Amino acid sequence: MTTLTRRVPFGAVSSLLGALALALTLTACGEGPITLPPVTPPPAPVRTVIGNFTFALGLFELSQPVEITISGTGNGTVDATAQWTFASNDVDLFLTDRSCAATSIISLQACNVLARADSVTSKPEVIRQSLGAGVYRVYVHNFGPDAEAGTLIIGFTR
């Protein structure tokens, strides 16, 4: 009679014994298997439209400021988008603090301009700026060459 013997490599035996020892150790605590609490993702940012405005500006005319108030804690992002009729016109946007009382592009230069969208060729013009609580002003300026009309949409994301 012949006897067949199968040899198991030593590494496989030691891995199996290690896994068995770990399982016995974890269940020996009396707590059973370890479970981790579920991970809750942070809430998605929410965008709120602050206002939808229209403007009509002559050549080199600056709009009356649109005042926006941000309340609450922490920063958020203000976005302002100006859209207008004629691509040949250069319409720009400026975001300032509340102390700005500009009545022309020249007096706007003395203000604390926090953000600007003043490309000669971009249409629409868009500002995105992180801001905390406070009162801010958005101005639209028409550099022409002709009179212009359009819309200004302002949103806030937090």
Provide an overview of this structure.
- By secondary structure, this protein is mainly beta.
- The chain has one domain (47-157): Jelly Rolls (Sandwich).
- The chain contains two helices and eight strands.
- The strands form two sheets. Strands 1-8-3-6 form a four-stranded antiparallel β-sheet, with no helix packed on it.
- The longest helix is centred in the N-terminal third of the chain and has 19 residues, at 10-28.
- It starts with 9 loop residues before the first helix and ends with a strand.
Topology:
Layout: H1 10-28, E1 47-57, E2 66-70, E3 76-84, E4 91-97, H2 105-108, E5 113-117, E6 125-131, E7 134-142, E8 148-157
Antiparallel strand pairs: 1-8, 2-7, 3-6, 3-8, 4-5, 4-7
Strand order of the largest sheet: 1-8-3-6
The appropriate CATH architecture is Sandwich
Tally the structural domains. Answer: 1
H/E element string? HEEEEHEEEE
Which structural class best describes the helix and strand composition? mainly beta
**Strand percentage, roughly?**
35-45%
Q: Report helical residue fraction.
A: 10-25%
Which key features would you list for this structure?
158 residues; mainly beta; Jelly Rolls; four-stranded antiparallel sheet; 2 helices; 8 strands; 15% helix; elongated
